[in-house]
Amino acid sequence: MSRPVRVAVSGANGNIGYALIFRLASGQIFGPNTPVSLRLLEVSQFLPNLGGTIMELEDCAFPTLSDVKASDKAEEAFGDADWVILVGGMPRKDGMTRADLIRANGPIFTGQGKAINESASADARVLVVANPCNTNCLIAKSHAPRIKPENWFAMTRLDQNRAASLLADKAGVNVGQVTRMNIWGNHSDTQYPDYKNAQIGGKLVTEVISDHSWLEETFIPTVAKRGSAVIKARGASSAASAANAALGHVHSAVNPTAAGDCFSAGVVSNGEYGVPSGLIYSMPLFSADGKTYKVLTDFTIDDAARARIDASAAELVSERDVVKDLLGPAV
Ligand code: LMR
User: Fold this and answer.
1) Pairing of strands 263-268, 280-286
2) Does 147 share its domain with 161?
3) Can you give the CATH number for the domain in which 235 is found?
4) Shortest-distance Cα residue to atom 3 of ligand 1
C-alpha cells in the first residue's frame, strides 16, 4: 500500500455526502493499493448524525480506509488534504434559480477558501460541487493564493454524464461509446453541451444522429435543465448522480485520459477559446499523467456555438459582479 491520500469532504452529512464517502473509502476511485484518509466537515448540529455514518464506514471494513475523522472546523478538516471536495451549502429547491443561491452560499466559500489556504496540502486539488459551483469556486480560490490556480475545479461532470447518457440513448448504443462530450461554461441553464465535437464510436455525433433539430432543440435544453427536472420530480436536488459525478471527476483528474477523449470541468480560464481570463469556465480537459491537465485546443466552434459559449461567459461575468465584495486577493 502507498501513502494514504487524504480527502476532505464538506457537507458530509448531507445526501450527496452520504452517497460519496463510502465509495471514496471503498478504493474504487484511488485504486486498491491507495489507502484513503477521510476528513469529514459538517456543522456542529449534525456531528452526532455524522458519527452514525462513521460507524457505518467502520462496519464496511474497507481495507482501503486508513482513518476517518469528523470536525466542525474547516481548518481542522482540510488539514494536509490532498483533495478537498466542497459539497456543503444550501441546495437548490423547486422554484429557485442557481442565481438565487449566490448570495446565500457565497459567504461560506470565503471562509472555506481561507481555511484551504491555511491548512490543506500545498498541492491540494479542490472540487466545488455546491451551487452555484463555478462562482463558489471563484470565491474560494480568490482567498487561497497558496493553492495553484490549475488545482481548482467546479463540477460539470454531472452535465457531461447527462449529455453522454442522452446521446447514447438516442443513438441506441452503450454510453461507453460516447467520447469528447464536453460541457462549455457555467453549471447552469446557459451551459453548452457541445454535441458537435462529441463522438459516438469514433464518429461525429452529427454523422451518427441524423435528427439535427433534436440535437439543437431538444438535447441542449434537456441537458441544461436536467437539474431542475430532477428537483421537480424528486422534490430534492440530485444526490446520488451528483456524488457519482464528483467521484468521476476525481477519477479523471488522477488518471491519464484515454487518447481521443476528454473530461469537462470548470477551470480557471487563461483566455482559451476567447473566454475571459480568470473566470471558472468549463472546458474540454485532457490529462496525460493524472497530475496536470491541458485544455484541448482542437474543438471547432461555429457561429452558433460561439454565441452559446459567449452567453455562458457573460452569465459568469455577471455572477462575479454580484459577489465582488466576497472576492479575495487571488482573483
Ligand atoms: C444538478 O444539476 O442536479 C444540481 O446542480 C442541482 C441543481 O441545482 O440543478
Assistant:
1) antiparallel
2) no
3) 3.90.110.10
4) 227
Q: Whose CA is nearest to atom 1 of ligand 1?
A: 227
What value does the mean pLDDT take over residues 4-17? 98
Residues 173 and 314 in one domain: yes
Cα 94 to middle of ligand 1, angstroms:
11
Q: Which of 100, 158, 165 to mutate to test the pocket of ligand 1 (most atoms within 8 A of CB)?
A: 158
The ligand 1 atom nearest the CA atom of 129:
5
CATH number at residue 112: 3.40.50.720
Residues 235 and 256 in one domain: yes
The 10s digit of each residue's pLDDT in 256-267 is 999 999 999 999
- Whether 230 is in the pocket of ligand 1, judged by its Cβ within 6 Å, is yes
> Where in the sequence is the domain holding 247, given as residue range(s)?
157-321
Residue 302: predicted pLDDT: 98
- 268 and 161 within one domain: yes
Judge whether 53 and 12 are in contact, CB under 8 Å. yes
Q: What is the pLDDT of residue 255?
A: 98
Is 194 found in the same domain as 60? no
Residues 193 and 69 grouped into a single domain:
no
Residue of the CA atom closest to atom 4 of ligand 1: 227
pLDDT tens by residue, 50-98: 999 999 999 999 999 999 999 999 999 999 999 999 999 987 788 877 6
pLDDT score for 94: 83
